[in-house]
């Protein structure tokens, strides 16, 4: 495995996931997600620095791992293809297994799984374009 990746592109990919999450779990799906997850939309999820810091660090780890999977100069097609594949076939389906046992709703799985499909598709777009 080569550690020859574009670190600026990796950071940009992580930032894109962070921004997507703000839109996805904010104005697009906040109310539905809160209802389906049993979360009070007015409640405080914890210290914002810890919550957002953790989210960014985890997005960065995922972006690094994805960049390593793609290799040093992936084509746009490979990046997008692998992004959709990883987001759906690995991440969203893993959520689906957990949600089935936890008896979570299909709506919640579609919101959470959909976010991760788009997250990894964005990673593939950025890493496939920026060499």
From TrEMBL:
It holds the Pfam family DUF1761. Signal peptide: none annotated. The chain crosses the membrane at residues 6-25, 51-70, 82-101, 108-130. Keywords: Membrane, Transmembrane, Transmembrane helix. The keyword Transmembrane helix applies. InterPro entries: DUF1761. This is DUF1761 domain-containing protein. It comes from Agrilutibacter solisilvae.
């Amino acid at each position: 495995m080569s550690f020859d990746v574009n670190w600026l592109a990796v950071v940009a990919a992580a930032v894109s996931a962070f921004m997507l999450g703000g839109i996805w779990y904010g104005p697009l799906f906040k109310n539905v997600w809160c209802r389906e997850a049993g979360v009070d939309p007015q409640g405080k999820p914890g210290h914002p620095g810890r919550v957002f810091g953790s989210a960014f660090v985890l997005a960065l780890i995922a972006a690094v791992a994805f960049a390593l999977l793609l290799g040093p100069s992936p084509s746009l097609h490979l990046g997008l293809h692998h992004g959709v594949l990883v987001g759906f076939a690995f991440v969203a389906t893993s959520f689906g297994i957990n949600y089935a046992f936890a008896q979570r709703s299909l709506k919640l799985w579609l919101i959470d799984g959909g976010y991760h499909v788009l997250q990894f598709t964005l990673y593939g777009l950025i890493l496939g374009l920026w060499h």
